[in-house]
Amino acid sequence: MFVLRIRNTHKRRYALLCLSIFAFLMYRCIGLLSGGRTMSRKVGLRANSSQFTLEGEPFRILGGSIHYFRVPRAYWRDRMMKMRACGINTLTTYVPWSLHEPARGVFQFQTDLDIEAYINLAADLGLWVILCPGPYSSSELDLGGLPSWLLRDGNMRLRTTYPGFIDAVNTFFDKLIPKMVPLQFKKGGPIIAVQLESKYGSFKGDDSYMPFIKEAILSRGISELLLTSDTPQGLQAGGVTGALRAVNLRKLNQGNIEYLNAVQPNSPVMVMEYWTGWFDVWGDLHHVLAPEDMVSSVREMLRRGMSVNLYMFHGGTSFGFQSGALANPSYKALITSYDYDAPLSEAGEYTPKYHLLRELFSRYHRVEKLPDMPALRWKEAYEPAIMYHHLSLWDALSFTEEPFKSPTPVNMENLPLNNGNGQSYGYVLYETTITSGGLLKSEDHVRDRALVFVDRHYIGIFKHQSLELAVPDGKGKRILSLLVENCGRVQNGKALDNQRKGLVGDIFLNNVPLRDFTIYSLEMKESFIDSLYLAPWKSLPHIPSFPGFFMGRLFTYGYPSDTFVKLPGWGKGVLFVNGLNLGRYWSIGPQQTLYLPGPFLNSGVNQVIMFEEQEADYKVHFEDVPDLGMAVDIQ
């Protein structure tokens, strides 16, 4: 509080000048404390007749997608700085509901899921943000980013106004949206637009659903530009009044643009997802898009005055069990890498696409020079880790939660686990007693893949394409075991409601349904992997049994570098480093290496544990270059 008692006119003017300077300095200090941003703005992003404006000035969105949940937090800044150096002005990200609310009413917004810190960092580095809060995101995630506990309701209808679904959405939005409100443009933050749902036009199960999502967003305080995102075929059905329709595509087709203009006349054209590459599935080839083809499409969009968001600019990695699956024409599980053949590689390396885009985007930054490209990080080919200990699956069962007994099979989501939330990922072991051999039939009730054992001796496999298996004859009672893996829930389409995993119905032996199961959960959480250090491991090179766990050590010196894990001689399983689940590996490819970021490693000794289903080499190799398999051009 300042009190002025100055009668002399000149002195009074001098004092007022000093106060004005003081107020200006205080304003600047407040701006610096808020990340260099003013505290409020009046006019945000608007879609006028032919172009966007921001604060009333013409604005073109040069966007790129990076998902914070697919990048180690230690690398957020590096990836965003490379984005800025490429000439991109807007960061786009989805929000994975399944990761933020892994159990009903249990929320996680810390460490690698600290979305507020992610968005604030984008602002500090000079990037605007388009937020895609879902609740559904697709983005090649298990169940499209929806939490699996929703499927405990046998009548669940996902992405509709079914009461059980909208109640859960409201609870999630009650937690998420208030965190986003202060980060909006008009409140001094970087969020200039919010996408409603994702590609609903191709799903379209409920006419009331998109209006509900819009109201859920607005009623919680979102006031920036709203938009929807659909393929050309879904533009009409997926839109909602009051939200700009944006289009997703790979090739610029005059017919598509004319259709968009007809559906939404007198509006700027926004390509919300320009696909810079594609995702891969196990057993297929690695999909790539020629850099020249990609850049020529982007160049044409910009020539026409369109705004564009590159999906993906940097794909990253679907660590753990994040990867989803495809349903059509048949079930196929997605690989761990989400490299996507994007301009910035899975490990943050510059690609030919990056350099071409930087040259192109530099023409749209005439006022300011693009920032220098950040230096690349060193990649290390470490000495192999020798797997010196082995633990059979059967010996590891005592370290799982108490097994559950049931007269009939119970699917993964409905197991009495995790405080009534069921099991989300991993494996489930079903065991029962049989007294004869014969023909075992799955009736397509195995989701998605099951190794079958009699008295813990492997006899065969069930998967989507194999529905029958011969059980050898034997005397007396024997234990039949089915180790069932959730290989990834389908991420999109009408099949979402039918993505329960494990055994989803009866298994028949000689046309008689099996009964009286003992069920073990093998969710492969970090706490379970840590508990295995106390297990009765056996020293190799005794002949190991499969499935089983293998333990070894990786030694690093100094500040650990990124590396790529290569597994020749291994079959199929999951890799853990220092308790962290790097993801699935499978010899059928295309992916032949798993990305291991340096921040996941300790200087010195690092524990490596493999869960291997069928065969092992006993060595884990580390290389300084990735191997995503034989490539095929995207058609």
Secondary structure elements and pairings:
Blueprint: H1 9-33, E1 45-47, E2 52-54, E3 57-59, E4 62-66, H2 76-85, E5 90-94, H3 97-100, H4 115-124, E6 128-132, H5 163-180, E7 191-195, H6 209-218, E8 225-230, H7 235-238, E9 244-249, H8 254-263, E10 270-275, E11 286-288, H9 291-303, E12 307-314, E13 325-326, E14 332-333, H10 352-361, E15 385-392, H11 393-396, E16 404-406, E17 427-434, E18 438-441, E19 446-447, E20 449-454, E21 457-463, E22 468-471, E23 478-485, E24 502-503, E25 508-509, E26 512-513, E27 517-522, H12 526-531, E28 538-539, E29 548-556, E30 563-566, E31 572-577, E32 580-586, E33 593-596, E34 604-612, E35 619-623, E36 631-633
Parallel strand pairs: 4-5, 4-12, 5-6, 6-7, 7-8, 8-9, 9-10, 10-12, 11-36
Antiparallel strand pairs: 1-2, 2-3, 13-14, 15-28, 15-29, 15-35, 16-27, 17-23, 17-27, 18-22, 18-25, 19-24, 20-21, 20-23, 25-26, 29-34, 30-33, 30-35, 31-32, 31-34
Helix pairs in contact: 9-10
